[in-house]
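Re-run with default settings, no changes from the original entry. Doing this only to confirm the output is reproducible before filing.
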Amino acid sequence: MLEEPRDVFKLSRDWLSVQEVVDVVSSASCGAISVFIGTTREDECDGRKVIGLEYEAYELMAQSEFTKLCADIRARWPTVTHVCVHHRLGWVKVGEASVVMAISSPHRHDGQQAIQHCIAQLKANVPIWKKEVYDSEEASWKENAECSWSGQHKLHPVTENMNNK
């Protein structure tokens, strides 16, 4: 029995559940579920330690771009059955998941390729922005190098002092 493809995209200010994302893509017809979890990492920038990220999104456009991304994934890997992406908005401290995605397919090869493509294209085309927050109480908006509208090589990041808010 052929299963109707399911594409689920959710932006959330709450903690992300890997199990919830896996459950969305689970299917009796699939022998593989490929998962990617992107976490906020402890990093250093100009001697300042990153303590978390603040995410914002253009939510309606993000949903539209996700729909296009799913169509692209299905065109490239027709055996992909279900796609689910949950992305955090707001404050995400070091160690917590910023994005959780899963893709189901009958065999692992297509799902693994599709999940790599999905995260790369999500970062390149879906309007979700992040601001690094540092232990110095400063913050800096960051661009994804993959981003189609990125001027990363032309512009310098805007730095804010969090005390002025």
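Confidence is low (pLDDT under 50) at residues 152-160. DSSP finds three helices and ten strands in the chain.
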